[in-house]
Design brief:
The complex is a heterodimer of chains A (135) and B (580). In chain A, 43% of the residues lie in helices and 23% in strands. Chain A is built from five helices and five strands, in the order E-H-E-H-E-H-E-H-E-H. A five-stranded parallel beta sheet of chain A has the order 2-1-3-4-5, with helices on both faces. Helices cover 50% and strands 6% of the residues of chain B. The two termini of chain B are 42 Å apart. The chains are: A alpha/beta (135), B alpha/beta (580). Chains A and B meet through helix 1, strand 2 and helix 3 of A and helix 7 and helix 21 of B.
């Protein structure tokens, strides 16, 4: 039996439209054999969590450049808990100040990737985090 | 810089020079370049291979070992006709005969965060430090036409720019700054109609006739669908408002630049230099055609159209891009649209250094990147320039880093010599060849987009969006495959220095702004707001120009969200189909 593919939701929460990073990462993960669902722009925490639960995602990748991460990310983590989907790992990419990185990590974010991160690093991280699956 | 030969082997031997005859046997002239390649270059490479199999620009354009006059001949470049002289058609070498000798570019640092008071204070400090123009960065809720108390605005109020909800906030933003004494650039697009009307209303309140105020609104509604993605209305509605703005500004605000056609965001989204050039100019052409459809004479409105380009790391390719842009625009305006006023032919532009090129790793290195990029913009003849701060990838700039960025421009202006002569790189075989190649590539894109029925149709088909995504992915893969080295990212990665200090914006702006807005809503005359918004609705649904109605609504202290919402009711709201 073929191993189940890693399922990843990529989304841009908030109002910011800088989607180059989100799309490049989405495509790189797809090319690495993962199942990628890109939800697109202006996603509310509710929309993202609903999408992740419906799609039975392993990973949620959020791209945030707007500075709204301290509101958006904890909200998503809370909603995941409420939905009993706390095992879905949340990754954040974008512009995140260092003092927020620590706070968000303590809050339960899996990893935070800053500008200059390669897609290879992200792919490796996801494979390790999900573990046990072929891709 | 040529390396000094270290062994006798590497010195070109006189015998090998003599081995290539002056003319081939068929009697045609030898290409000087080809003769050199055979005589000197190829033997040298055979002895010691070059350090890479491929040399390419930031955009992935292959670069040859040497450019000579032969490369211009091969491209059909006629220096007299295509390059000409500064201040003369087609302005490849610059729109002003004196370049930066007559006047330096405007050092225009984009600023804005928190509340209107915070930004007002930074404006005053920047003016005191020698900055010559103001530039307003709005927060995301304002950029997408939402008020600070909107549910969707949560966490974003005053974060990446200043929160403006009403004319009252504009009064605070420009407190102590007379609008007839500054030029102001406002970076806003679909809601630009609202912010411009508020600025004109503020001028009136300061006792200044709006006809004398000067500045720019970005208002490049089409590139929102291609790149920036802070859209509000669908393309058709956005273009209707655009047409109203062109007409209104032409009649009422003759000194206002009603659009800054922006390649900046297209490049930031990952395009090549040629795509930035082509899509930006083609967007500009779409606005010219809109003005013509409104029955305006091209020379009545085209001189107020300005451009905004990116400055990336590849100095020569960037300089060529600006030169090609001037040439293409002059030719297009004269040949395609029949403009007769030379001011309609001029492509004037603002430049911002490439945020996308900056790294979070070893952030001090970003100062060097910004310096190279700013130098490219200056050598390319920019009219105005924003230099990014070294902390751009981490946060909004600290005061200190914002000053370093401004000082970078001042060092280039006064110490580098780059501003001492017009178009210093003109006549460089390499730069002239690149200029011709970029212009050709842009013309091919124009043809493709024309065949699709214009830029609106091309956007609806997702054409420019797909082209940019491909380029963005290619670039990323070049880095990951080590075909492109980026210092601090995939080369020379050893970190140094203490972590830099950055500006931390707390959440207090959001609470203050929401409170302020609630206060305004209590104080204002709701009936007057209702009447003004109803009149705006009727204008939007009919054919009357929306701009005078938006100005009335601004005077009545209707909010950005209310005014944009009224037009959303009529024109609808754009939703993107996500593709990757």
């Amino acid at each position: 039996m073929a191993a189940q593919r890693i399922r990843v939701i990529i989304a841009k929460p908030g109002l910011d439209g800088h989607d180059r990073g989100a799309k490049v990462v989405a495509r790189a993960l797809r090319d690495a054999g993962m199942e990628v669902i890109y939800l697109g722009l202006r996603q509310t925490p509710e929309m993202i969590v609903q999408g992740a639960v419906q799609e039975d995602a392993d990973i949620i990748g959020l791209s945030i450049h707007s500075g709204a991460h301290n509101y958006i990310v904890p909200r998503i983590l809370d909603l995941l808990e409420e939905e009993g989907a706390g095992d879905i790992k949340v990754l954040v990419g974008g512009i995140i100040p260092e003092r927020d990185i620590e706070a968000l990590s303590e809050r339960g974010v899996g990893a935070i990737f800053l500008p200059g991160t390669t897609t290879t690093e992200i792919i490796e991280y996801i494979r390790q985090a999900v573990g046990g699956r072929a891709t | 810089m040529p390396k000094k030969p270290t062994t006798l082997d590497e010195v070109p031997q006189p015998s090998s020079v003599a081995a290539v005859p002056a003319k081939p046997s068929d009697g045609t002239a030898w290409s000087v370049k080809q003769a050199w390649m055979e005589r000197t270059y190829e033997p040298a490479v055979a002895r010691r291979p070059e350090r890479s199999d491929e040399f390419m620009t930031v955009s992935g354009r292959p670069v040859e070992a040497l450019y000579t006059a032969d490369d211009l001949t091969a491209r059909g470049v006629e220096l007299d006709a295509d390059v000409a002289m500064p201040g003369e058609y087609p302005f490849t070498r610059g729109v002003h005969p004196t370049g930066h000798r007559g006047k330096l570019w405007t050092m225009r640092q984009f600023a804005g965060f928190g509340t209107a008071e915070d930004t007002n204070q930074r404006f005053k400090r920047l003016l005191a430090n020698g900055q010559t123009g103001l530039s307003v960065a709005f927060d995301h809720p304002t950029l997408v036409g939402l008020d600070s108390d909107d549910d969707l605005a949560r966490g974003e109020v005053g974060r990446q720019g200043v929160a403006i909800d009403s004319l009252e906030d504009m009064e605070t933003l420009f407190d102590g700054i007379a609008l007839d004494g500054v030029t102001t650039s406002m970076t806003i697009n679909h809601p630009a109609c609202v912010l411009l009307a508020m600025y004109a209303a503020l001028a009136q309140k300061q006792g200044i006739d709006p006809s004398v105020i000067s500045g720019t609104i970005q208002n490049d509604v089409l590139k929102e669908f291609i790149a920036q993605k802070t859209f509000v209305y669908p393309p058709r509605g956005a273009m209707r408002i655009m047409g109203d703005i062109i007409e209104w500004c032409t009649e009422t605000l003759p000194r206002w630049n009603w659009v800054s056609v922006s390649g900046y965001h297209i490049r930031e989204a990952g395009s090549t230099a040629a795509q930035e050039l082509a899509f930006t100019l083609r967007d500009g052409m779409e606005y010219v055609e809109l003005g013509l459809e409104r029955g305006l004479a091209v020379d009545a409105f085209a001189p107020r159209l300005s451009f905004f380009f990116n400055a990336h790391n590849d100095l020569f390719e960037e300089v060529a891009k600006y030169r090609a842009a001037r040439q293409l625009w002059a030719q297009t305006m004269r040949e395609r649209y029949g403009a007769r006023n030379p001011r309609s032919w001029w492509l004037r532009f603002h430049t911002q250094t490439a945020g996308v090129s900056l790294l979070g790793q070893q952030p001090r290195n970003n100062v060097m990147r910004v310096t190279l990029q700013a130098l490219a913009a200056v050598l390319g003849g920019t009219q105005s320039l924003h230099t990014n701060s070294l902390d751009e990838t981490i946060a909004l700039p600290t005061e200190e880093n914002a000053i370093i960025a401004l000082r970078t421009q001042q060092v280039i202006a006064h110490e580098s010599g780059a501003a001492n002569t017009v178009d210093p790189l003109g006549g460089s075989y390499f730069v002239e060849a690149l200029t011709a190649d970029l212009a050709d590539e842009a013309r091919d894109y124009f043809d493709k987009i024309d065949s699709m029925g214009g830029m609106v149709a091309a956007i609806e088909e997702g054409f420019p969006q797909r082209e940019i995504q491909e380029a963005a992915y290619r670039y990323q893969m070049e880095i990951e495959e080590q075909r492109r080295l980026i210092v601090g990212q995939n080369a020379h990665t050893t970190d140094y220095g203490e972590p830099i200090e950055y500006l931390y914006i707390d959440d207090s702006a959001e609470g203050q702004q929401v409170e302020r807005l609630a206060g305004l809503k209590d104080r204002r005359d709701d009936q007057a707001v209702r009447v003004a918004l109803d009149a705006l609705h009727a204008a939007a649904a009919g054919e009357a120009n929306v701009m005078p109605r938006i100005m009335d609504a601004a005077h009545a202290y209707a909010t950005v969200g209310e005014i944009c919402g009224t037009m959303r009711d009529v024109f609808g709201e754009y939703r993107e189909t996500p593709i990757f």
